Fold:
Amino acid sequence: MSEYLDKAFSPAVLGKSLEVRNRIIKAATFEGKTPGGMPGQALHDFHRELCDGGVGMTTIGYCTTEADGRISEEMMYLGDYARPQLTSMIADLKTTGTKVSGQMTHCGNFSKNRQLQRLKRAQGPSPQFNDLGLIVGKPWADGMTEADIDYLVDTYYNAALYMKEVGFDATEIHFSHGYGLSQFISPKTNKRSDKYGGSIENRMRLPLRILEAVRKAVGDDFPIMGKMGLTDGDAVKNGLTEDDAIRVAEMLDQGGIDALITSGGTSTHNTMWMFRGEPITKAMIATQTSPLMKMLFTMVGPMKWKNYPYEELVFLDGFKRVRDAVKNSQMIYIGGCHEMDSLEKVISEGADFVQIGRALIRNPNYVNDAMAQREQFHSGCTHCNRCVATIEAPGGVHCYLREEEKAIQIQQA
Ligand SMILES: Cc1cc2nc3c(=O)[nH]c(=O)nc-3n(C[C@H](O)[C@H](O)[C@H](O)COP(=O)(O)O)c2cc1C
Structure:
Protein backbone atom coordinates (compact mmCIF):
# COMPACT_ATOMS: atom_id res chain seq x y z
CA MET A 1 0.00 0.00 0.00
CA SER A 2 1.40 3.37 -0.90
CA GLU A 3 2.35 5.87 1.75
CA TYR A 4 -0.58 8.05 0.60
CA LEU A 5 -3.15 5.33 1.04
CA ASP A 6 -1.65 4.61 4.44
CA LYS A 7 -2.07 8.28 5.23
CA ALA A 8 -5.68 8.31 4.00
CA PHE A 9 -6.59 5.51 6.37
CA SER A 10 -4.63 6.81 9.36
CA PRO A 11 -5.90 9.14 12.11
CA ALA A 12 -5.68 12.88 11.53
CA VAL A 13 -6.62 16.08 13.33
CA LEU A 14 -9.31 18.34 11.90
CA GLY A 15 -9.09 21.98 12.93
CA LYS A 16 -7.24 22.66 16.14
CA SER A 17 -7.84 19.40 17.94
CA LEU A 18 -10.55 17.07 16.64
CA GLU A 19 -9.04 13.62 16.27
CA VAL A 20 -10.59 11.70 13.40
CA ARG A 21 -9.77 8.01 12.96
CA ASN A 22 -9.08 8.34 9.22
CA ARG A 23 -9.26 10.99 6.53
CA ILE A 24 -12.48 9.84 4.88
CA ILE A 25 -15.55 11.98 5.54
CA LYS A 26 -19.00 11.09 4.30
CA ALA A 27 -20.04 14.12 2.22
CA ALA A 28 -23.23 15.96 3.07
CA THR A 29 -25.99 14.33 1.06
CA PHE A 30 -29.54 15.31 1.93
CA GLU A 31 -31.06 11.89 2.39
CA GLY A 32 -34.80 12.47 2.36
CA LYS A 33 -35.10 10.58 5.65
CA THR A 34 -36.66 13.34 7.74
CA PRO A 35 -40.41 12.96 7.09
CA GLY A 36 -42.23 16.10 8.15
CA GLY A 37 -38.80 17.49 9.06
CA MET A 38 -38.17 14.98 11.85
CA PRO A 39 -34.82 13.19 12.11
CA GLY A 40 -35.98 9.68 12.95
CA GLN A 41 -34.83 6.07 12.84
CA ALA A 42 -34.30 5.95 9.06
CA LEU A 43 -31.75 8.77 9.18
CA HIS A 44 -30.13 7.20 12.22
CA ASP A 45 -29.86 3.77 10.56
CA PHE A 46 -28.40 5.28 7.39
CA HIS A 47 -25.60 7.03 9.27
CA ARG A 48 -25.06 4.16 11.69
CA GLU A 49 -24.27 1.92 8.72
CA LEU A 50 -21.70 4.43 7.48
CA CYS A 51 -20.14 4.68 10.93
CA ASP A 52 -19.99 0.90 11.24
CA GLY A 53 -18.47 0.91 7.76
CA GLY A 54 -15.46 2.81 9.02
CA VAL A 55 -15.77 6.44 7.89
CA GLY A 56 -13.74 8.86 9.95
CA MET A 57 -16.56 11.35 10.10
CA THR A 58 -20.11 11.35 8.81
CA THR A 59 -22.06 14.48 7.89
CA ILE A 60 -25.73 15.05 8.50
CA GLY A 61 -26.52 16.98 5.34
CA TYR A 62 -28.70 19.99 4.74
CA CYS A 63 -29.60 21.02 8.29
CA THR A 64 -31.14 24.46 7.90
CA THR A 65 -30.65 27.28 10.36
CA GLU A 66 -34.35 28.13 10.55
CA ALA A 67 -37.64 26.55 9.51
CA ASP A 68 -37.97 28.80 6.46
CA GLY A 69 -34.48 27.86 5.30
CA ARG A 70 -35.79 24.47 4.20
CA ILE A 71 -36.33 23.78 0.52
CA SER A 72 -39.34 21.76 1.53
CA GLU A 73 -41.14 20.96 4.76
CA GLU A 74 -39.67 17.44 4.55
CA MET A 75 -36.26 18.79 5.60
CA MET A 76 -34.88 19.19 9.08
CA TYR A 77 -34.04 22.50 10.69
CA LEU A 78 -31.89 23.08 13.74
CA GLY A 79 -34.76 23.83 16.09
CA ASP A 80 -35.85 22.71 19.55
CA TYR A 81 -38.42 20.28 18.18
CA ALA A 82 -35.60 17.98 16.97
CA ARG A 83 -33.28 18.35 19.96
CA PRO A 84 -34.02 15.02 21.73
CA GLN A 85 -33.85 12.97 18.51
CA LEU A 86 -30.62 14.57 17.34
CA THR A 87 -28.98 14.31 20.74
CA SER A 88 -29.63 10.59 21.07
CA MET A 89 -28.82 9.84 17.42
CA ILE A 90 -25.47 11.67 17.53
CA ALA A 91 -24.55 10.08 20.87
CA ASP A 92 -25.17 6.63 19.41
CA LEU A 93 -23.24 7.35 16.19
CA LYS A 94 -20.26 8.52 18.21
CA THR A 95 -20.08 5.22 20.13
CA THR A 96 -18.71 3.71 16.90
CA GLY A 97 -15.61 5.91 16.99
CA THR A 98 -16.82 8.00 14.04
CA LYS A 99 -17.08 11.75 14.43
CA VAL A 100 -20.29 13.50 13.44
CA SER A 101 -20.54 16.77 11.57
CA GLY A 102 -23.61 18.68 10.47
CA GLN A 103 -24.02 20.84 7.41
CA MET A 104 -25.47 24.23 8.23
CA THR A 105 -27.41 25.72 5.39
CA HIS A 106 -30.31 27.83 4.12
CA CYS A 107 -32.16 27.59 0.83
CA GLY A 108 -32.45 31.34 0.24
CA ASN A 109 -34.61 31.93 -2.82
CA PHE A 110 -34.81 28.26 -3.88
CA SER A 111 -37.81 26.88 -2.05
CA LYS A 112 -40.99 24.91 -2.44
CA ASN A 113 -41.72 24.94 1.28
CA ARG A 114 -45.47 24.82 1.89
CA GLN A 115 -45.07 25.61 5.57
CA LEU A 116 -43.24 28.91 5.66
CA GLN A 117 -43.43 30.24 9.21
CA ARG A 118 -41.76 33.65 9.29
CA LEU A 119 -41.84 34.60 5.62
CA LYS A 120 -44.59 34.99 3.05
CA ARG A 121 -42.28 33.91 0.24
CA ALA A 122 -38.72 32.67 -0.06
CA GLN A 123 -36.04 35.35 0.06
CA GLY A 124 -32.67 35.76 -1.61
CA PRO A 125 -30.20 38.56 -2.19
CA SER A 126 -32.35 40.06 -4.95
CA PRO A 127 -35.94 39.63 -6.09
CA GLN A 128 -36.16 36.86 -8.64
CA PHE A 129 -38.14 34.05 -10.18
CA ASN A 130 -38.15 30.91 -8.03
CA ASP A 131 -38.90 28.10 -10.49
CA LEU A 132 -39.14 25.52 -7.72
CA GLY A 133 -41.78 27.66 -6.01
CA LEU A 134 -44.06 27.22 -9.05
CA ILE A 135 -45.00 23.83 -7.63
CA VAL A 136 -46.49 25.43 -4.52
CA GLY A 137 -47.88 28.53 -6.19
CA LYS A 138 -45.06 30.81 -5.00
CA PRO A 139 -42.97 31.45 -8.11
CA TRP A 140 -41.39 34.63 -6.81
CA ALA A 141 -38.66 35.22 -4.23
CA ASP A 142 -38.20 38.54 -2.47
CA GLY A 143 -34.94 40.43 -2.04
CA MET A 144 -33.68 40.67 1.52
CA THR A 145 -33.58 43.91 3.47
CA GLU A 146 -30.63 44.66 5.75
CA ALA A 147 -32.84 43.67 8.69
CA ASP A 148 -33.48 40.30 7.00
CA ILE A 149 -29.73 39.88 6.58
CA ASP A 150 -29.12 40.63 10.27
CA TYR A 151 -31.82 38.12 11.16
CA LEU A 152 -30.19 35.47 8.97
CA VAL A 153 -26.84 35.97 10.68
CA ASP A 154 -28.55 35.41 14.03
CA THR A 155 -30.08 32.15 12.78
CA TYR A 156 -26.58 30.86 12.01
CA TYR A 157 -25.29 31.95 15.40
CA ASN A 158 -28.15 30.19 17.20
CA ALA A 159 -27.89 27.12 15.00
CA ALA A 160 -24.17 26.87 15.74
CA LEU A 161 -24.79 27.01 19.51
CA TYR A 162 -27.46 24.34 19.06
CA MET A 163 -25.14 22.09 17.08
CA LYS A 164 -22.62 22.08 19.85
CA GLU A 165 -25.30 21.44 22.45
CA VAL A 166 -26.77 18.41 20.67
CA GLY A 167 -23.32 16.84 20.34
CA PHE A 168 -22.02 17.50 16.83
CA ASP A 169 -18.21 17.34 16.68
CA ALA A 170 -17.86 19.82 13.83
CA THR A 171 -19.88 21.92 11.44
CA GLU A 172 -19.77 22.60 7.72
CA ILE A 173 -21.16 25.87 6.41
CA HIS A 174 -22.68 25.51 2.96
CA PHE A 175 -21.38 28.35 0.77
CA SER A 176 -22.05 26.60 -2.52
CA HIS A 177 -24.44 24.79 -4.90
CA GLY A 178 -26.75 27.76 -5.44
CA TYR A 179 -28.29 27.85 -1.98
CA GLY A 180 -28.68 30.89 0.30
CA LEU A 181 -25.07 31.99 0.87
CA SER A 182 -23.96 30.99 -2.58
CA GLN A 183 -26.74 33.19 -3.96
CA PHE A 184 -24.93 36.12 -2.33
CA ILE A 185 -21.52 35.03 -3.60
CA SER A 186 -22.57 34.49 -7.22
CA PRO A 187 -23.12 37.54 -9.45
CA LYS A 188 -25.73 35.48 -11.28
CA THR A 189 -28.13 35.82 -8.35
CA ASN A 190 -26.76 38.78 -6.40
CA LYS A 191 -27.86 41.96 -8.15
CA ARG A 192 -27.69 44.19 -5.11
CA SER A 193 -26.25 47.67 -5.31
CA ASP A 194 -25.66 48.11 -1.57
CA LYS A 195 -22.70 46.91 0.51
CA TYR A 196 -23.79 43.26 0.06
CA GLY A 197 -23.59 43.33 -3.75
CA GLY A 198 -21.23 44.26 -6.58
CA SER A 199 -17.58 43.42 -5.94
CA ILE A 200 -16.57 39.99 -4.64
CA GLU A 201 -15.62 41.70 -1.37
CA ASN A 202 -19.20 42.98 -1.03
CA ARG A 203 -20.74 39.68 -2.11
CA MET A 204 -18.67 37.98 0.60
CA ARG A 205 -19.78 40.40 3.31
CA LEU A 206 -22.69 38.24 4.48
CA PRO A 207 -20.84 34.89 4.27
CA LEU A 208 -17.98 36.39 6.30
CA ARG A 209 -20.38 37.83 8.89
CA ILE A 210 -21.85 34.35 9.18
CA LEU A 211 -18.46 32.72 9.60
CA GLU A 212 -17.67 35.23 12.34
CA ALA A 213 -20.99 34.57 14.10
CA VAL A 214 -20.56 30.81 13.92
CA ARG A 215 -17.02 31.05 15.28
CA LYS A 216 -18.25 33.25 18.13
CA ALA A 217 -20.87 30.62 18.95
CA VAL A 218 -18.67 27.53 18.84
CA GLY A 219 -15.26 28.78 19.97
CA ASP A 220 -11.83 28.06 18.57
CA ASP A 221 -11.68 24.33 19.25
CA PHE A 222 -14.77 23.37 17.27
CA PRO A 223 -13.90 22.78 13.61
CA ILE A 224 -15.73 24.88 11.05
CA MET A 225 -15.49 23.65 7.48
CA GLY A 226 -16.76 25.61 4.50
CA LYS A 227 -18.08 24.03 1.32
CA MET A 228 -17.38 26.53 -1.43
CA GLY A 229 -17.98 26.59 -5.17
CA LEU A 230 -15.13 26.80 -7.67
CA THR A 231 -17.48 28.02 -10.40
CA ASP A 232 -21.21 27.86 -11.03
CA GLY A 233 -20.55 25.59 -14.02
CA ASP A 234 -20.06 26.23 -17.71
CA ALA A 235 -23.74 26.57 -18.63
CA VAL A 236 -24.31 29.41 -16.16
CA LYS A 237 -23.71 32.73 -17.83
CA ASN A 238 -22.36 35.51 -15.59
CA GLY A 239 -21.92 33.11 -12.71
CA LEU A 240 -19.09 32.66 -10.22
CA THR A 241 -15.66 32.54 -11.87
CA GLU A 242 -12.71 30.57 -10.58
CA ASP A 243 -10.75 33.78 -10.02
CA ASP A 244 -13.50 35.04 -7.74
CA ALA A 245 -13.61 31.65 -6.05
CA ILE A 246 -9.93 32.00 -5.19
CA ARG A 247 -10.75 35.32 -3.52
CA VAL A 248 -13.60 33.59 -1.68
CA ALA A 249 -11.15 31.00 -0.40
CA GLU A 250 -8.64 33.63 0.67
CA MET A 251 -11.29 35.59 2.52
CA LEU A 252 -12.67 32.53 4.31
CA ASP A 253 -9.12 31.56 5.19
CA GLN A 254 -8.40 35.01 6.63
CA GLY A 255 -11.79 34.85 8.38
CA GLY A 256 -10.57 31.85 10.35
CA ILE A 257 -12.26 28.91 8.70
CA ASP A 258 -10.60 25.61 9.65
CA ALA A 259 -11.01 23.76 6.38
CA LEU A 260 -12.22 24.35 2.83
CA ILE A 261 -14.13 21.86 0.69
CA THR A 262 -13.91 22.77 -2.99
CA SER A 263 -17.03 21.81 -4.90
CA GLY A 264 -18.76 23.46 -7.86
CA GLY A 265 -21.94 23.86 -9.86
CA THR A 266 -25.37 24.70 -8.55
CA SER A 267 -28.43 22.60 -7.83
CA THR A 268 -30.46 25.59 -8.98
CA HIS A 269 -28.96 26.13 -12.44
CA ASN A 270 -26.59 23.32 -13.35
CA THR A 271 -26.92 20.30 -11.09
CA MET A 272 -24.90 17.81 -13.13
CA TRP A 273 -21.76 19.95 -12.96
CA MET A 274 -21.01 18.73 -9.45
CA PHE A 275 -21.78 15.09 -10.23
CA ARG A 276 -20.89 14.30 -13.85
CA GLY A 277 -22.09 10.99 -15.25
CA GLU A 278 -25.59 9.97 -16.27
CA PRO A 279 -28.04 12.94 -16.30
CA ILE A 280 -30.84 12.48 -13.78
CA THR A 281 -33.78 13.40 -16.03
CA LYS A 282 -35.18 9.87 -16.46
CA ALA A 283 -34.75 9.02 -12.82
CA MET A 284 -36.35 12.29 -11.70
CA ILE A 285 -39.36 11.72 -13.96
CA ALA A 286 -39.72 8.19 -12.60
CA THR A 287 -39.77 9.32 -8.95
CA GLN A 288 -42.45 11.98 -9.45
CA THR A 289 -45.98 11.02 -8.47
CA SER A 290 -47.70 14.08 -9.94
CA PRO A 291 -48.43 13.94 -13.72
CA LEU A 292 -47.80 17.70 -13.85
CA MET A 293 -44.29 17.27 -12.45
CA LYS A 294 -43.60 14.40 -14.83
CA MET A 295 -44.61 16.62 -17.73
CA LEU A 296 -42.56 19.56 -16.44
CA PHE A 297 -39.44 17.44 -15.96
CA THR A 298 -39.88 15.90 -19.42
CA MET A 299 -39.90 19.41 -20.89
CA VAL A 300 -37.16 21.10 -18.87
CA GLY A 301 -35.08 18.08 -17.78
CA PRO A 302 -32.61 17.99 -20.70
CA MET A 303 -31.89 21.72 -20.21
CA LYS A 304 -31.66 21.51 -16.44
CA TRP A 305 -29.70 18.27 -16.18
CA LYS A 306 -27.01 18.41 -18.82
CA ASN A 307 -24.85 15.55 -19.92
CA TYR A 308 -21.27 15.79 -18.67
CA PRO A 309 -19.32 12.54 -18.90
CA TYR A 310 -18.13 11.22 -15.57
CA GLU A 311 -14.56 12.05 -14.58
CA GLU A 312 -12.73 11.00 -11.45
CA LEU A 313 -11.21 13.96 -9.59
CA VAL A 314 -13.24 16.44 -11.56
CA PHE A 315 -12.40 19.37 -9.29
CA LEU A 316 -8.71 18.63 -8.79
CA ASP A 317 -7.36 21.63 -10.73
CA GLY A 318 -9.54 24.09 -8.79
CA PHE A 319 -8.68 22.33 -5.55
CA LYS A 320 -4.98 22.85 -6.26
CA ARG A 321 -5.47 26.55 -7.01
CA VAL A 322 -7.28 27.03 -3.72
CA ARG A 323 -4.67 24.96 -1.88
CA ASP A 324 -1.95 27.26 -3.21
CA ALA A 325 -3.90 30.41 -2.33
CA VAL A 326 -4.76 29.75 1.31
CA LYS A 327 -2.39 30.11 4.23
CA ASN A 328 -3.98 28.38 7.19
CA SER A 329 -7.01 26.33 6.17
CA GLN A 330 -6.89 22.60 5.83
CA MET A 331 -8.01 21.28 2.47
CA ILE A 332 -10.79 18.78 1.89
CA TYR A 333 -11.16 17.28 -1.57
CA ILE A 334 -14.63 16.46 -2.97
CA GLY A 335 -15.86 15.45 -6.41
CA GLY A 336 -15.41 11.99 -7.88
CA CYS A 337 -12.77 10.64 -5.56
CA HIS A 338 -14.12 7.11 -5.59
CA GLU A 339 -11.25 4.84 -6.58
CA MET A 340 -8.02 4.05 -4.78
CA ASP A 341 -5.69 5.69 -7.28
CA SER A 342 -7.74 8.88 -6.96
CA LEU A 343 -7.56 8.76 -3.20
CA GLU A 344 -3.83 8.29 -3.40
CA LYS A 345 -3.55 11.21 -5.83
CA VAL A 346 -5.53 13.73 -3.76
CA ILE A 347 -3.67 12.88 -0.60
CA SER A 348 -0.39 13.29 -2.49
CA GLU A 349 -1.67 16.70 -3.64
CA GLY A 350 -2.11 17.82 -0.06
CA ALA A 351 -5.71 16.96 0.80
CA ASP A 352 -6.00 16.73 4.57
CA PHE A 353 -9.34 14.95 4.25
CA VAL A 354 -11.50 13.61 1.43
CA GLN A 355 -15.27 13.80 1.24
CA ILE A 356 -17.10 11.06 -0.58
CA GLY A 357 -20.78 11.07 -1.49
CA ARG A 358 -22.14 8.59 -4.02
CA ALA A 359 -19.57 5.84 -3.51
CA LEU A 360 -20.53 5.70 0.17
CA ILE A 361 -24.22 5.52 -0.73
CA ARG A 362 -23.26 2.63 -3.02
CA ASN A 363 -21.22 0.94 -0.30
CA PRO A 364 -21.43 2.23 3.28
CA ASN A 365 -18.71 -0.29 4.18
CA TYR A 366 -16.35 1.40 1.69
CA VAL A 367 -13.67 2.32 4.23
CA ASN A 368 -13.52 -1.09 5.91
CA ASP A 369 -13.48 -2.81 2.51
CA ALA A 370 -10.87 -0.46 1.10
CA MET A 371 -8.63 -0.90 4.11
CA ALA A 372 -8.89 -4.68 3.76
CA GLN A 373 -8.54 -4.91 -0.03
CA ARG A 374 -6.15 -2.00 -0.55
CA GLU A 375 -5.29 -1.32 -4.21
CA GLN A 376 -7.68 -4.09 -5.33
CA PHE A 377 -10.73 -2.28 -3.97
CA HIS A 378 -13.31 -0.75 -6.33
CA SER A 379 -16.15 1.46 -5.20
CA GLY A 380 -18.78 -0.20 -7.42
CA CYS A 381 -20.40 3.19 -8.06
CA THR A 382 -21.28 3.51 -11.76
CA HIS A 383 -22.28 7.19 -11.51
CA CYS A 384 -25.73 6.35 -12.82
CA ASN A 385 -26.81 9.10 -10.42
CA ARG A 386 -30.11 7.39 -9.70
CA CYS A 387 -29.38 7.94 -5.99
CA VAL A 388 -29.67 11.68 -6.57
CA ALA A 389 -33.24 11.28 -7.78
CA THR A 390 -34.19 9.20 -4.73
CA ILE A 391 -33.97 12.30 -2.52
CA GLU A 392 -37.74 12.57 -2.85
CA ALA A 393 -38.56 8.89 -3.32
CA PRO A 394 -40.42 6.98 -0.59
CA GLY A 395 -37.88 6.04 2.09
CA GLY A 396 -35.36 8.52 0.75
CA VAL A 397 -31.89 8.06 -0.67
CA HIS A 398 -30.71 4.64 -1.68
CA CYS A 399 -28.54 2.96 -4.30
CA TYR A 400 -30.40 0.88 -6.88
CA LEU A 401 -27.37 -1.29 -7.58
CA ARG A 402 -27.07 -2.15 -3.91
CA GLU A 403 -30.80 -2.95 -3.70
CA GLU A 404 -30.46 -5.23 -6.72
CA GLU A 405 -27.50 -7.00 -5.16
CA LYS A 406 -29.39 -7.48 -1.92
CA ALA A 407 -32.39 -8.90 -3.80
CA ILE A 408 -30.16 -11.42 -5.59
CA GLN A 409 -28.55 -12.43 -2.29
CA ILE A 410 -31.99 -13.00 -0.75
CA GLN A 411 -33.07 -15.09 -3.75
CA GLN A 412 -29.92 -17.17 -3.55
CA ALA A 413 -30.17 -17.76 0.22
C1 LIG B 1 -28.27 12.07 -2.92
C2 LIG B 1 -27.37 13.26 -2.82
C3 LIG B 1 -27.73 14.34 -2.05
C4 LIG B 1 -26.87 15.45 -1.91
N1 LIG B 1 -27.20 16.46 -1.05
C5 LIG B 1 -26.29 17.41 -0.76
C6 LIG B 1 -26.49 18.32 0.30
O1 LIG B 1 -27.49 18.26 1.03
N2 LIG B 1 -25.53 19.25 0.52
C7 LIG B 1 -24.39 19.32 -0.24
O2 LIG B 1 -23.55 20.19 -0.01
N3 LIG B 1 -24.17 18.48 -1.26
C8 LIG B 1 -25.07 17.50 -1.51
N4 LIG B 1 -24.79 16.56 -2.45
C9 LIG B 1 -23.53 16.66 -3.23
C10 LIG B 1 -22.41 15.86 -2.55
O3 LIG B 1 -22.10 16.35 -1.26
C11 LIG B 1 -21.14 15.89 -3.39
O4 LIG B 1 -20.74 17.23 -3.56
C12 LIG B 1 -21.32 15.23 -4.76
O5 LIG B 1 -22.06 14.02 -4.63
C13 LIG B 1 -19.97 14.91 -5.41
O6 LIG B 1 -19.24 14.03 -4.61
P1 LIG B 1 -19.11 12.46 -5.04
O7 LIG B 1 -18.48 12.43 -6.38
O8 LIG B 1 -18.23 11.86 -3.97
O9 LIG B 1 -20.48 11.88 -5.05
C14 LIG B 1 -25.65 15.46 -2.62
C15 LIG B 1 -25.29 14.36 -3.40
C16 LIG B 1 -26.13 13.27 -3.51
C17 LIG B 1 -25.68 12.08 -4.33
Notes: The radius of gyration is 20 Å.
